[in-house]
Amino acid sequence: MQFSDLASFDKLISPTLIKILYWIGIVFIVLAGLGSLVAAFSFGGGFWRALVSIVGTIAGLLFWRVACEAYIVVFGIYDRLGEIRDRGAMRPQA
Q1: Contacts of 54 (CB under 8 A, 6+ apart)
Q2: What pTM, to 2 d.p., does this model score?
Q3: pLDDT tens for residues 22-66?
Q4: Which one of 50, 69, 73, 74 is CB 3.0 to 4.6 Å from 40, fit for a cystine?
Q5: Spatial CB neighbours of 23, under 8 Å, sequence gap ≥ 6
Q6: DSSP letters spanning 7-23
């Protein structure tokens, strides 16, 4: 990616940013899950609270993955529509 791509909006940077934010989100979700797990045993929550924190962490990871994939799909649709538009411009009008 060159600076001219950023200035002209010919290439979107959002899919790249979404991938970076995905990994940052993974780190935060795992850290929150570990914190919840430690809190479950530290404050007398026991086995069930620990189980809920593990299941919640897994659900959070799955939700985050699906949300990021949805954003990437939307930007992919935008790119494909641009390709279709450009291909249609080359054909002579009837």
Answers
A1: 33, 37
A2: 0.74
A3: 999 999 999 999 999 999 888 777 888 999 999 999 999 999 999
A4: 50
A5: none
A6: HHTSS--HHHHHHHHHH
